[in-house]
Structure formats: C-alpha cells, structure tokens
Structure prediction request, 114 residues.
Amino acid sequence: MTARQAAGAAAEEEAARHLAGRGLRIVARNFRVRGGEIDIVCRDGDAFVFVEVRSRSRTDYGGAAASITPAKQARLILAARHWLQRHGERPCRFDCVLIDAGHLEWVKDAFRPA
Prediction:
C-alpha cells in the first residue's frame, strides 16, 4: 500500500467512526462497479446513505469539497444505482465527509441526482 493509499484508508476509517458515532449504521465500504465507487454505504433509518470521503492535507486549490466535481458526482450516482438494483430501491441521499488539514466536516445531502 502506498503512502497515499494509507492516508485515504485512514481518512475513510475516521469518517466511518464519525458517522457510526452519530447513529448511522455502516453497511459496506469501497463498493465498486465498472465506472464508479462509493467509499461508504450507510443506513440512516430506512434510507441508504452513499458517502464520499475526501481528505486534503492542505486547502490549496479549493480543498476537499472542490474535488467532488460533477463528473465525480455522476460516477457516485452510477454506483448508487447499481447498489439500489442489488439491494432494493429505497430512499437514499448522498453525503460527503470532508477532511481539510485535519478538520472533519460532514455534509448531509451534499448533492442530488439530476
């Protein structure tokens, strides 16, 4: 595992602990399909929550939030559609956990499918 991969795994672990500590149930991690990946899948009551985790050690170039481009959102939505086909249609939302220079921010309902 490279240093970058280790840092990403550590950020995802921190995000999962944060979400679980606030009542979400972690269902899956690193769900991959051709064309997309979801870092963390949770349950919040009846709804599935698809979570993108982004970590940046510096806030140059807009920080973690700026890296979730419309193209990245489209890949997350594609993966979420596959998840829902396999696990049943139900309400869902897309959240982001942003870690900028060690500061964690959980953004609920960060974006919606078009």
Summary: The chain has three helices and five strands. The chain has one domain: 3-102. Residues 3-21 form the longest helix (19 residues). Strands lie at 25-33, 36-44, 47-56, 92-100, 103-111.
